[in-house]
Amino acid sequence: MAGVTRDSRSLPIQIRDEILEMFDVEGYQVGDRIPSEQELAERLHVSRPTLREALKFLEEERFLYCKHGRGRFVALERSCVYEAITRLQSVTEMMQERSLVAQARVLSLREEPAGEVIATQLGIEADTPVVLLERIRLAEQEPLIYSIDIFPRAIVKGHLEPKEFEGSLLSIMEERWNVRLDYSKTIISAVQLDSDITQNMGLPADLPWILLEQVNYTAYHEPVVYSKDYHRGDKFSFHVVRRHY
Which of 134, 179, 201, 205 could be bridged to 195 by S-S, CB 3.0 to 4.6 A? Predict the structure, then answer.
């Protein structure tokens, strides 16, 4: 008998997704007022504290905003992904949190000697074998991210098979290669992609992109992945909390 798939995510995250699904099914638009906490708690069969935590997630992600004494209102369309830039997570995880099914189309997977720039980024000798992985990340069959990941060939266990890289690279590294990423150093830029790449994705050549260029490190401060992730500017927004000390 097939095993029962259980949702391992926290209950507030699950409730958050149920609220988003309600927006879709009932056709909520930007500016619409959503039901009160009591109404939502009764409809979703959940406690008020759990509901408030789910609503807090939606407010932090700017899907909702609150007007004192008037309630909560829809702030963003679901087509826009609003993500905290301080979190290091895979695209697959990010999409799963939003009830979206992430896919990856491998464009190129090859081994080559590291040039001076890549060698410096990864803290290795020039000409050391590295793997270059070029992919398009999609959700609901729509291209959202163009990515390039470069990592030392030495950390890869087994042969290089494109099909093996259609999921989360972070999961592959942790589960198969016993390499766990702990943090990254990131540079954020507004760019435009080469027209050949956008044409391959079936997207307009003048589409704006947000580039996250980063080096990913283990907890022992070892650089293991140099990546360039190009996020569609019309689909992604990133936020960070800045404090005045």
Answer: 205
Residue ranges making up the domain that contains 24? 11-74
What is the distance between the alpha carbons of residues 214 and 151, in angstroms, rounded to a whole number? 12
Burial class of 237 by CB neighbour count within 10 A (0 to 12, 13 to 18, 19+): middle
Per residue in 127-183, pLDDT (tens digit) is 999 999 999 998 878 899 999 999 999 999 989 999 999 888 998 999 999 999 999
Indicate if 125 and 193 belong to the same structural domain. yes
Please report, for the domain that includes residue 25, its CATH number: 1.10.10.10
pTM recorded for the entire structure: 0.67
Instruction: Mark whether 162 and 219 lie in a shared domain.
Output: yes
Question: Same structural domain for residues 68 and 124?
Answer: no
* Average pLDDT along the chain: 86
Q: Which of 74, 93, 116 corresponds to the end of one domain?
A: 74
Q: Rounded mean pLDDT of 176-204?
A: 93
Contacts of residue 175, defined as CB under 8 A and 6 or more positions apart, other chains included, come to: none
